[in-house]
Amino acid sequence: MGNSIYGVAISGLNAAQVALNTTSHNIVNANTEGYNRQQIKQSATTPAPTGGGFLGRGVQINTISRVYDEFVGRQVQTAKAQDGYLTSQFSHLSDLDNLLADPSAGFSPSLQDFFTGVQTVANSPKDAAARQSLLGLAESMVTKLRTVNERMAVLREDVNTEIVSSVGNINSITSQIAELNDQIILATGAGGGNPPNDLLDKRDQLVKDLNGYVKSTVIKQSDGSYNVFIGNGQNLVVGNMAFNLGAIPSPDDPSRLEVAYQQFGATVIIPDNLITGGSLGGVLEFRTKTLDDAQNSLGRIAVALAQTVNDQHRKGQDLNGQFGGNFFKFPVEQVNAQHNLGANARTMTAELTSDQPFIESDFNVAYDGTNYTITRLTDGQTNTVTPASILAAGGHVAFGVRFQLSGNLAAGENFGVSFRPAASHVIPSAKNTGDAALQVSIANIGVLSSSDYEFIVDKVDDATTVGVREDSYRIVRKSDGMTTNINGTQWANPPIVVDGLSFRLNSGNFVAGDRFTIQPTRDFAENMSVMITDTAKLAAAAPIRTSSDVATIVTSQGGSNTGTGTITNITESMVSSGGSAAKKVEVVFTGPGTYDIRDAGTGTVLAGNQPYVPGGNITYNGWTVQVAGAPAAGDRFIIEPRRNTGSGTISAGVVSSVPVNINLKDPVAIQFVSSTSYQLVDPTNGNVLQAPQLYTAGQDISFNGWTVQLSGVPANGDSFIIEANAGGTADARNMLAIGKLQTMNTMAGGTSNFQGTYSKMVADVGVKTNQVKINQEAQAALLQQAETKQQSTSGVNLDEEAANLLIFQQAYQAASRTIQIAQRAFEEVLNIGR
After folding, report:
1. E strands along 644-751, which residues?
2. Is the peptide bond before 659 cis (omega within 30 degrees of 0)?
3. Taking CA 788 as the corner, what is the angle to CA 782 and CA 789, rounded to the nearest 5 degrees?
4. Helices 70-101 & 754-794 angle (0-180, nearest 10)
5. Ranges for the Flagellar basal body rod protein N-terminal domain (predicted)?
6. What gap in Å lies between CA 66 and CA 76, rounded to an integer?
7. Is 363:377 a contact under the CB 8 Å cutoff?
8. DSSP per position, 277-294
9. Whole-number Å distance between alpha carbons of 337 and 351
10. How many angstroms separate the CA atoms of 213 and 80, rounded?
11. Rounded distance, CA 588 to CA 571, Å?
12. Which of 361, 801, 755, 741 minimizes the C-alpha distance to 537?
């Protein structure tokens, strides 16, 4: 019958039926996501040979195929991955940008208010209300810093949440792809090699969805299955097997979730930079390149502000006449011990003994030849300790601090002790096998970066070679991979300072392969607060004062003296021209054992009937003389002040460094022994403190932790005094110095101030947000373009399908008509024989 008209008509009827079914299938799936238009492929059946030639036997359906352009499909997948990447990144960047741009949460206004409060106290240093207002403004500023940091921490938790969600969705998709791989292989076999189009569509749609989460590479196998890879070759799908990703805490930072690859019981973390594209790649990029830097930058501003204000405040003097303490409170760790007198190799270490790592004051440790005296500078409290105790292995504990000295000091030597800010987070890797505790502190805020760091132990010293250190270490700046190699000799002489960070081993032992993650400033604001609660402890004044208009004591002998006495051993005390010692006075002997001090101009007795011991001191208002020989009753000796004759004037003086020198307030006189040289003397007793030094105009003169300069031209015999600022409650020089910190370039290697650094951080986030927004909008258009192109090729056109329905309906009707005609012809044949 295959060669008959019946066979031909039936084949046509069947073909038309399949075409109608396929077209109907296209129409009902016109809105199905990922559906590709299907079409039948038919051909004429093999003709039958006859004597008159080959006779056609109808039509056959070769296959039902989907209209799918693999190249365009890959374009869509790539565009989808980039769109997911940019959309996710823009969403998180917008959150951060809105946070920093929010005037109610922003840091800039509160920073300005704080320094306005500083200036108010500088204008009225004794005003209790101004002082209380400054403390309130400081609290407000710290609260703003903490609020911004807390909201950044919330954004960090959002990142973790999205990682967990994305990983879960990826695993769901890959398991479905693996299952479809199996179904496609079975269906293809059952269908005689014909493709199961709807299953293929579902799988391709899943691949597209997968690229929305992470960029993937698909390799089609000979059996029609897909192998799917991400990163640098991590296979998520191989045949009918799916390999899950995981979101696990980083061994280097448990608060940070990482994407891990799980296969055959093994879990390996995939580095963030290998996960590209998709929303997962976007959120990882945001965390690594923007959020980390922004939160670290905020912490860097906080530590720079706190440390510079603290350093300057400790250089001042409060209303109680004590040295200033720390203005802000934050965790401290490593001691900064400064040897103030003498040059030696001895070192001082100090550590807090309390679980609360905060300290208010600097300290001084001095040796008098018998015992050590530890002085807390904020209140002058002292603690005496024997050399044996402070040199012992456990050191000596005083004021909550454990002090330990290596090697005894010489009598008169001392150490100033202050504490540096501790790095916010020093995290040992969970994989470390050693028990070492690495100590990291911030030694130089001026060069501090906003990067995280990694400390790596490459090799430990096995002590096999005497005198040779074989250990080695690396410090890696994670923002750019810059590596500093440390050899054993360097490590044996701590601290190691890199980018303003000081590294040293606190306790325990390293094992090769141990690693530590250092986040120097992250969350610094979280543990920062205002330490001062008593307004009287605001150190607005400078602890020293200077005077250029001073007087030197000169003497002469009355012309009518009858005795043999002469003035000797003059102590030339440095006194202000406004002081009482500036008066010209005379010593008048009223008898062999008594004398008066009288005003040389008026004769008024200033100190009468004073006892005299031959050879003893005669002292009045700061100067001291002795009389050699035997003065007689009525003998007079004139004591006359002499003004500086040069044009030199002395600067107000600054405290050179912290910790401050405990001898800072001791009175010192700069005496010019010629126009080009000077010596330092103690004005209370005339003792020379420093031998004559050469003098160059404008040079620094430093002693006891202060530094001054002279302007003009000092003359031989001129003197200048530096002394304690007793009663200086109206002085505001230190508060003015704190105010100058607002515009001083103390950050970024001396190129930026607090406000500039914060503004740059805000601007960087804003610029990046805008750039990603532009790129995301462009990428969305590219994705739409690629999808439109795909739809133009593979999508269902309802108008076209409606036309096809009519065509295939006509074909079906025609085939049916052919059968009817064949039936009539057959009946005619049968009727011939009747």
Report:
1. 649-650, 654-655, 668-674, 677-681, 688-694, 700-703, 706-711, 719-724
2. yes
3. 90
4. 150
5. 8-35
6. 17
7. yes
8. SHHHHHHHHHIIIIIHHH
9. 11
10. 9
11. 19
12. 361
Give the tokens for residue 796.
């269902």
The answer to whether the peptide bond before residue 631 is cis (omega within 30 degrees of 0) is no
Closest CA to 682 of 663, 661, 699, 668: 668
Instruction: Name residues whose C-beta falls within 8 Å of residue 439's C-beta, 6 or more positions apart in sequence.
Output: 333, 334, 426, 503, 504, 505, 506
CA 518/CA 303 separation, integer angstroms = 15
* Nearest in space to 585 (alpha carbons), one of 562, 563, 612, 606: 606
DSSP-based three-state secondary structure for 534? coil
Work out the burial of residue 563: count CB atoms within 10 Å of its CB; fewer than 13 is exposed, 13-18 middle, 19 or more buried. Answer: middle
Number of Cβ within a 10 Å radius of residue 514: 23
Domain ranges of the chain: 5-67+797-832, 332-420, 549-643, 649-724
Report the SS3 class of residue 656. Answer: coil
Neighbours of 564 (CB within 10 A): 12
Residue 356 CB partners (closer than 8 Å, separation 6+): none
pLDDT at 576 over 60: no
Are the beta carbons of 508 and 433 closer than 8 angstroms? Answer: no
- SS3 assignment for 552-619: EEEEEECCCCCCCCEEEEEECCCEECCCHHHCCEEEEEEECCEEEEEECCCCCEEEEEEECCCCCEEE
Which tens digit of pLDDT belongs to each residue from 313-357? 999 999 999 999 999 998 887 666 666 655 455 677 777 776 556
pLDDT tens, residue by residue, 254-301 = 999 999 998 778 889 999 999 999 999 999 999 999 999 999 999 999
Give the Cα separation of 121 and 129 in Å (integer).
9
For the chain, first and last CA: distance in Å? 24
Amino acid at position 709, single letter: Q
Q: Where are the beta strands (DSSP E) in 392-528?
A: 396-398, 401-406, 414-421, 425-428, 437-442, 453-459, 472-477, 483-487, 496-498, 501-507, 515-519
Alpha-carbon gap, residue 545 to 590, rounded angstroms:
40
Geometric angle at alpha carbon 174, from 170 and 179, rounded to 5°: 150
Q: Which position has the higher pLDDT, 335 or 588?
A: 588
In angstroms, rounded to a whole number, what is the distance separating the alpha carbons of residues 93 and 86?
A: 10
Q: What value, to the nearest 5°, has the Cα angle with vertex 494 and ends 493 and 498? A: 120
560, 577 Cβ separation under 8 angstroms: no
For residue 375, the surrounding DSSP H or E stretch is strand 372-376
Note whether 448 and 501 are within 8 A (CB): yes
What is the overall mean pLDDT for the chain?
89
Report the DSSP beta bridge partners of residue 530. 328
Amino acid at 636: R
Q: 3-state class of 48 per DSSP?
A: strand
For residue 443, the SS3 value is coil
